[in-house]
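A student in our group prepared the protein record below, which I am reviewing. This is what I was given:
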Amino acid sequence: MTHDALSNRHPAVSFLFFMLAIGFGVVIQHPAYLLAGAVCAGSYYLLLNGRSGWRMICGLVPVFVLLSAINPLFNTYGATVLFCLFGRPFTLEALLYGMVISGMLVEMLLWFGCYSAVMTSDKFTSLFGNLIPALSLLLVMVLRMIPGFIRKAGQISGARKCIGKSASEESGVKERIADGMSVLSALMDWALEGSITTSDSMRARGYGSAPRTSFQIYHMTGQDWVLIACMATLATAVILGGEKTAAFSPEIRIAPLSFGFATYCILLLIPSALHIKEAIQWHISRSAI
């Protein structure tokens, strides 16, 4: 991940933005809003991940096409029949609704990808450690468990391959299943042993024996309060800024765009604008040296 302006702000600012972006993306099913959300999320994802982010975005394109085409095969509602497939009508309304649902999925995957890059476990713990200490610790441990399992499974598989214990490309299905079960067994042993070690370490350090204290390295600044006020104002304008409804059955009814769409785009462009602004300032500072 490259240097990012939103990542340097207080965790409350980042968390508020992602909750607004994800919440509006789930609730609003207007095609224009979904397109704007996907474009803004994709742009910010590329700013965070650079060229490697194109792999994720290119991988989402066939997912979008596939899910959009699958919906009319199971839902035949709609009055505009494009053609018949397997004796069932393939309607325009079902196709558009499938595009809306798949577009929502793509937008959520991009926003959650940005969230995982910006809202690290230490920021989440700092934000909710005093409010919900047990749940905060549990969520952090669960979120770090999946990438840890994947990394450890790769290490175990590589070690077995070095000593000639893993299945080769010429191995049959039985040998591959046996090799996978051996890796899974070793992975479970490692996970159980790690949980016992973590439990003993926490008990030895007195976890839960006294009121919990925390060390805060994040402090709210004037810029953080300004960003929170701007986000709250824009979110209110989005909610009050006209209709955002869209219906596809039995006929297509999409509400016209209003003032809320402009404020919605401005809200979602905040992290990208901050990122570009800081990058420009950084290049100006370097050129002045």
Observations:
- The longest strand covers residues 81-85.
- The two ends are 25 Å apart (CA to CA).
